[in-house]
């Protein structure tokens, strides 16, 4: 039986079988996504309430009106529609990645499977950390700064629903991706392009680049908001150095 196991593990599917399996996985994902989209329309007010919370809290802290306005008849409908689709894609993404794993996992080597199973959950945790950091800390600070900038007596603030959603989603995505910094550093170290020692020796340049990245990501560009984002990124840079050093030890032992 043991002699037969390698033969079973090395079984190769024909092109037709691969296409049939891909089709099956896509059907599963599309069906799941359709169900999530239907649920999102049922709970769309709850979703919108969560998204509006940073704006409303920022305006209440400044004693300003927290209303968002729609500039025409279709703006509110389209805003809800886009938000429901984006929320559905986010919720369905783990299921879609699982289906992708089921499709490609059979063709990977044990070492490659181990690497994916180790680093993929970490990437989700880091992305979620970036999203939560933006939702609870950075976005409220940025909104308060923008609301109070300039002459607040002569220039009244009216914010459209579409503009707010665009700003919120852009910042959320940018922060989630920027928190993947340790994994990017680990990847370059794992393929032998750079070493943990190189990262450590370039820490001054890294801090400068992190502040530049913070200025690009934040919509305000003021020193306070930049620093609020730069500090955790500097900490993540240190985590990237640690992960790179840990990854180099097994390679050195071999």
Q: What does the largest sheet look like?
A: 2 strands, parallel
**Structural class by SSE content:** mainly alpha
Which blocks of ≥5 consecutive residues have pLDDT under 50? 1-10
Shape call? flat
Distance linking N and C termini: 32 Å
Number of strands: 2
Counting DSSP H or I runs of 4 or more residues, the number of helices is 10
Question: Taking strands numbered 1, 2, ... along the chain, how are they ordered across the largest sheet?
Answer: 1-2
Q: What share of residues are in beta strands?
A: under 5%
Report Rg: 23 Å
Helix content percent band: over 70%
Written as H for each helix and E for each strand, in order along the chain, the element string is HHHEHHEHHHHH
Overall pLDDT, averaged? 84
Question: Layout of SSEs?
Answer:
Elements: H1 4-9, H2 15-42, H3 44-61, E1 68-69, H4 73-104, H5 110-148, E2 159-160, H6 161-178, H7 181-190, H8 196-201, H9 203-217, H10 223-253
Helix pairs in contact: 2-4, 3-5, 5-6, 7-10, 9-10
Structure notes:
- The protein has 254 residues and is mostly helical.
- Helices cover 80% and strands 2% of the residues.
- It is built from ten helices and two strands, in the order αααβααβααααα.
- The chain has helices spanning 4-9, 15-42, 44-61, 73-104, 110-148, 161-178, 181-190, 196-201, 203-217, 223-253, and strands at residues 68-69, 159-160.
- Strands 1-2 form a two-stranded parallel sheet.
């Amino acid at each position: 039986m043991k002699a037969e196991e390698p033969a079973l593990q090395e079984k190769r599917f024909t092109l037709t079988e691969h296409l049939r399996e891909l089709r099956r996985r896509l059907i599963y994902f599309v069906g799941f996504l359709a169900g999530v989209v239907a649920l999102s329309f049922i709970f769309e007010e709850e979703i919108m309430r969560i998204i509006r919370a940073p704006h409303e809290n920022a305006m209440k802290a400044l004693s300003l009106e927290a209303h968002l306005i729609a500039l025409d008849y279709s703006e509110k409908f389209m805003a809800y529609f886009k938000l429901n689709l984006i929320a559905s894609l986010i919720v369905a993404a783990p299921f879609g990645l699982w289906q992708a794993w089921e499709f490609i996992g059979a063709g990977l080597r044990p070492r490659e499977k181990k690497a994916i199973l180790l680093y993929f959950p970490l990437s989700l945790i880091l992305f979620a950390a970036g999203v939560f950091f933006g939702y609870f800390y950075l976005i409220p600070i940025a909104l308060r700064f923008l609301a109070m900038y300039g002459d607040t007596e002569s220039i009244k603030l009216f914010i459209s629903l579409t503009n707010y959603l665009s700003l919120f989603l852009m910042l959320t995505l940018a922060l989630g991706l920027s928190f993947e910094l340790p994994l990017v550093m680990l990847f370059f170290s794992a393929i032998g392009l750079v070493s943990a020692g190189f990262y450590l020796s370039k820490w001054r340049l890294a801090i400068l680049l992190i502040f530049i990245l913070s200025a690009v990501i934040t919509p305000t560009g003021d020193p306070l908001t930049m620093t609020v984002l730069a500090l955790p990124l500097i900490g993540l840079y240190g985590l990237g150095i640690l992960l790179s050093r840990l990854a180099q030890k097994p390679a050195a032992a071999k």
